[in-house]
Amino acid sequence: MALMPRESAKLIARLAKNVFIEEEGVKKLACEVLEGLKNHSICTANYSQHELHPKPDDNKAADWVFVLDTLNFSFWNSGNDPKWKVNGYTGYFALCAAIKRAIEAGKPILDPNYYAKISKADLEAIFDGDEDSGKAPLVDERLKCLHEVGTILLEKYNGSFTECIKACRGSAVELLKLIVTEFQCFRDEADFHGHKVALYKRAQILIGDIWACFQEKDLGAFHDIEVITMFADYRIPQVLVHFGAMRYSNPLLSMLQTGRYVFLQVLNLNRNL
What we know:
Order of helices and strands: HEHHHEEHHHHHHEEHHEHH
């Protein structure tokens, strides 16, 4: 069984040789976040206020968030290919724009009866980009994810992610365990120095988005939300390094600064990261 994300992070931080936690930077960033909470520039209401996100009073909001976060991964295009754009948005918000457009066009994209069997052609049509846009990346992988989660919802949860949330009785930890147990595509685990560690990036994003969408009430009222960790999105290390909360070794920093694809090289370093 894999260590949960918090325990995984502690282990990795203790053994890391190329990435370091800087205590003073952590304190500085914590103060910035606290100030944002005080002046309300950071608050759960920000989620549903975005025009592309569902509102908490939408009876399909939980299933909307679930579909978004099932598809919420890797928006990078290869080489010099143009970015995927929908209504001018790129990345995650291009996905949000595509899903909202599909809903407004009457496509049942929030219904697992539909997306558990959706064809690649239909999914590509939903992801259709702007005139100057590149294609949505990893369509085959996203198709597989939809088929998987849709089938599980139909077989075990009455066709709705709401039932998954209710089954956990207000516990974010139990919901995290349910998500990564039931839905394989949310289960990002790896071996690190002989230990099985877990990031559970999208699973934690999903819980955080439910919490924010419902503004900590109703389906988003988790009594243990503080146990959910900061998810391992690629923007997060950028922020941590910017505020001096995290530091890279010179060899790793040199690799990152080249602007080249260094994924495989970083993988070769993973035993020492």
